[in-house]
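Project channel, design review

CF: Before we commit to the Dissulfurirhabdus thermomarina constructs, I'd like one complete example in the thread so the newer folks can see what an input/output pair looks like. Taking MBL fold metallo-hydrolase.
RD: sounds good, go ahead.
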Amino acid sequence: MGGDLLELIILGSGTCVPSLRRAGPAVCLRAGGRTLLVDAAAGTLRQLVRAGVAHDQVDAVLFTHLHPDHVGEFVPFLFAMKYAPGYQREAPVTVLAARGFSAFYGHLQAAFGRWVEPGPGRLEVRELPVSGPAETELGPLRVCSGPTRHTPMSLGYRVETPAGRSVVFSGDTDVSPELVALAAGADIFVCECAAPEGHKVEGHLTPSEAGRMAAEAGVGRLVLTHFYPECDAHDLVTPCARFYDGPILVAEDFLRLAA
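CF: and here is what came back for MBL fold metallo-hydrolase:
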């Protein structure tokens, strides 16, 4: 992959529901010489290995919210940082999450003690506001965040490369004008679509809602993900395409995209 390109790997396209077809939510993004992990459901470390990405290559973990199906691998990740033989990383791993994450991590430390404490200078936590948009940098990458409509601590993320390429991650959300603004003009929009058309679940999107938001944002490509099992028996593209006329991809685990 060229230095100006970004590569996206869907590690898990499912939800909390156990499935042989779909692992829980997690995406790997490689861009600007950095490797980012967006959410980390239980089993994400194994999915990384299967995708050919070593866990000590992960520079940052971006959590969209703290539901267990999005943070379930955080404890194993920290444990592997400290005890996995051959872990070569010296630079700190950065964690981006909404304000309140440090308290959450404090509870994990109270429960697991030194097992989830990688050591001085090896973990950097940056808390981001949920009251409105925010920006931070991960090396050459610009990361913008903004509130979404799922929990009071839910964030969406936009990652931009120096070459101007961009990808947006919805996390879990209901219809969200804030997310539309965050996704405006993005090359790739990775958007949740938890329920098939006609089976709306509060706090999540249907295909038509995802398509409408993608159209309003004017994104280049739409990647639907975060499917409950009933989605696999339904046509997700047709209702989405009624509103969005760009490329629509229905994610599977280990789907790879470049931009």
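RD: helpful, thanks. The chain has a mean pLDDT of 97.
CF: Residues 101-112 form the longest helix (12 residues).
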